[in-house]
Amino acid sequence: MNYKLILPIVAYLAVVGCATTPDPWAMVPSQNVGLWQSLGVSPAVAMGYTTNGFEPADAKPWIQAGIDDPKQASLWHRGGVTPTEASKWLAMGVSPEMAISYATNGFDPADAKPWIQAGIDDPDQVMLWSREGFNPSQAKKWLAKGFSVEQALDYKRKGLTVE
Questions:
Q1: CA-CA distances (angstroms) from residue 52 to 60, 86, 107, 144, 152?
Q2: Which one of 8, 56, 85, 136 has the fewest CB atoms closer than 10 angstroms to its CB?
Q3: pLDDT tens sequence across 62-100
Q4: DSSP states along 71-99
Q5: Rounded CA gap, 163 and 161, in Å?
Q6: Residue closest to 102 by CA, chosen among 126, 83, 80, 84
Q7: Which helix (H) or strand (E) holds 31?
Q8: Is the four-CA dihedral 35, 38, 43, 46 of positive or negative sign?
Q9: How far apart are CA 33 and CA 111, in angstroms?
Q10: Letter string b/e over residues 125-144, b meaning 16 or more CB atoms within 10 A of that residue's CB
């Protein structure tokens, strides 16, 4: 075997092979690369959105709302929450699961905010107290004294308050 001929070829291939860097956009469908780039996302984020079933046009409002985590956007989307609402829920520290529970019961971020600010952030508790006619401030006072909604209703019917 002629090693004088093979050695330079192997050396050349090693240098050329090491000098090339893979295209970070290679895993993203080529017809969408320019669209993803125009949204200012990284190849990883673009691929994440693609994997979660989003086209660039579908992902744009989520990205504009500040939600650049494709998995989180997918959770919100599947729950029927818009990007604008999701952004508001996130600003209050509410998870997609909790927000969807609120939304399912007819609460939007503005409705839930006073309850959350009162320290009552469990959607089930909020619905229970709200359905019985208590506002966040009243519910907070009854809860602070250790009363359930049923007990509070009983006292309220008797004309008593938590004060």
A1: 14, 17, 27, 43, 46
A2: 8
A3: 999 999 899 999 999 999 999 999 999 999 999 999 999
A4: HHHHHHHHTT--HHHHHHHHHTT--HHHH
A5: 5
A6: 126
A7: none
A8: negative
A9: 40
A10: ebbbbbeeebebebbbbbbe
Is 66:47 a contact under the CB 8 Å cutoff? no
- Looking at residue 126, its amino acid is V
Q: Which residue has the tokens 């780039």?
A: 37
* Residue 98 token pair: 């909790």
> Distance (Å, rounded) from C-alpha 152 to C-alpha 148?
6
List, in sequence order, the alpha helices (H) in the chain: 3-19, 33-38, 43-51, 56-64, 70-78, 83-91, 96-104, 109-117, 123-131, 136-144, 149-157
